[in-house]
# Entry
Amino acid sequence: MRIVLLGAPGSGKGTQAKRLVARHGATQLSTGDLLRAAVAAGTPTGVRAKAAMDAGALVSDDIVLALIRDALETQGVRDFILDGFPRNTAQAQALEGMLGGLGQPLEAAVLIDVPEAELRRRIAGRRTCRQCGAIYNVYTAPSRADGVCDACGGETYQRADDTEATVDQRLATYRAQTAPLIEWYAGRGLLRRVDGTGAVADIDAALERALAG
Ligand code: AMP
# Structure
């Protein structure tokens, strides 16, 4: 499986990527998760990325491309779900070049479509486990005990960039820089669209149909 999950912040890319991994065993490559880990560890990449992330802007292409190149070319990942990458046309072109060089072109880019009002509600309620990365929502899918991950007992927290002040900027960044990728992938015959609202099990099923089609 070699796919890209496209969608605005809060559309469920991370949740669906984890569920696809559980069903298909591919590797989730989330540039957001990799960047947050770099920030938490205080690596040079993390130090360079932090300001843009806090502002809801995109981190520079050279940083995220290095992360993806490392996964594909150094670690040799061949079966993957890209979540949060690419986020602009330059990144999509670079990915196409890398995968072309490996003779392993992308199979599909799946857009998880969610209206903006719903995205805002989801982001404001999102909580993430510090330890295992499990995702909850205080309104729609809370953990059993407040602040404690069901899966591993770790602490759940609200991402610094999930606050209302940053969300407007992240949605604006998505509209201006990432949404054009919908047409870009449609032009290559790779785009599939999935309704990202409703029950998670229904979204799973729609995603599987989109991948089979
Ligand atoms: P995410 O968890 O995917 O919402 O990403 C969180 C933040 O990390 C984004 O708001 C960006 O600042 C940064 N980021 C993640 N992926 C990328 C990417 N492909 N290109 C640039 N910045 C990214």
Q: What stands out?
A: The mean pLDDT is 94.
